[in-house]
Amino acid sequence: MYMSLPTMRKGAPQQGTTLLSTGVRGLSVRYEPFGESGSSSFIHADVPRVSSDGLVFLSLSREYLEAIGLKGIAPEVRGVQVSRDHVVLGFHCDPGRSATISIEITFDRPGLIAGELGLENGPQVKIMQCIAP
Hints:
Layout: E1 20-24, E2 27-31, E3 34-36, E4 40-47, E5 55-61, H1 62-65, E6 68-74, E7 79-82, E8 86-92, E9 99-107, E10 111-119, E11 124-132
Parallel strand pairs: 3-11
Antiparallel strand pairs: 1-2, 2-4, 4-9, 5-8, 5-10, 6-9, 7-8, 10-11
């Protein structure tokens, strides 16, 4: 299944925000653990070394995607694969170099948001965010 997602300019968190940094082998993830309903935020997935074919496949749990709104993704998404539990986004990045995938999100409702993000067929990073009304 293919769907079109908006692209965005590379973004940085607003000044004064706190980023939580966590990771697993081959992936580091930075995100804000707290937010407000209706506000925007970023998730940054850092891949230290892109494979020689330049392809990066990032897996996001559907549970997490259903709890947030997607505003944009950089670099441009080249393909999307949807399964029962995950959505896999495909990107083309510079081979042999590091890459950062930035996802701009909105918090649609207050409460605890939880999910997973990782490289396809690799370990997943658990994401938890507390969203105030």
